[in-house]
Amino acid sequence: PSTPTMTSHKFCPDCGSPCESRVPDGDHKPRSVCTACEHIHYVNPNVVVGCIVEAGDQLLLAKRDIEPARGRWTFPAGYLECGESCADGAARETMEETEATVEDLGLFALLDIPHIAQVYGVYRARLISDHFAPTPESSEVRLVTMDEIPWDDLAFPSVATALRLYADDRAAGAFRTHTGIVEWTGEGSRFDLAQYRLRGHRAN
Ligand code: ZN
Q: Of the candidates 153, 134, 129, which has an alpha carbon nearest to the alpha carbon of residue 96?
């Protein structure tokens, strides 16, 4: 599979002049380069962080009330902000999407999703109060048992992959830390979560 072309700058964020796509001297890939000030605007993957929030034998899931995947279920997750740690970002997203406060965050999975240029960091975390509630980002927030996870109604391949790993570890009675690449099989629809696999999976 070829490397996806991610959004590049049409105009220079520094001086406003048009950018062109070319391979800078000494580089090996086309970059967005300003035609006036010569600034090279690199585009790098985004980091998404989230929490599988545990409360006894239940997990906290949220029904998305924003696009993409509005109306589908996820554990709380979102883009890491500049200046915060991954764990702090995961706890912040949990608060923003579910009003839940968490502690004891431990890395559970680091998933590469090259086809959308994302790195997905998933933590296990403990719910520290009974409070959680819908928010502008989530129409519904619920504690579910493993049997109640809505597998056919999850928001993203990354979410389904992380929850599947979690369910397997939980059934085996031992949690590990997982890495791997979430990939579309190339068959069926990209919107069908069943058409994704985890390549190069390792567990430590
Ligand atoms: Zn410029």
A: 134
Distance 1 CA to ligand 1 centre (A): 33
Q: Ligand 1 center to residue 12 CA distance, Å?
A: 5
How many Å lie between the centroid of ligand 1 and the Cα of residue 114?
A: 28
Q: Could you read off the pLDDT of 133-160 as tens digits, one per residue?
A: 999 999 999 999 999 999 999 999 999 9
What pLDDT, in 10s, does the model give residues 67-118?
A: 999 999 999 999 999 999 999 999 999 999 999 999 999 999 999 999 999 9
CA dist 5 and 124 (Å) reads: 32
Answering whether pTM is above 0.85, one says yes
- Please say whether the beta carbons of 75 and 51 come within 8 A: yes
Q: Are 151 and 81 in contact (CB under 8 A)?
A: no
| CA pair distance 109, 179, nearest whole angstrom | 6
CA distances, 129 to each of 66, 100, 103, 139, 166 (Å): 26, 7, 10, 20, 22
Name residue, tokens 């239940």.
58
C-alpha of residue 117 to centroid of ligand 1, in Å:
25
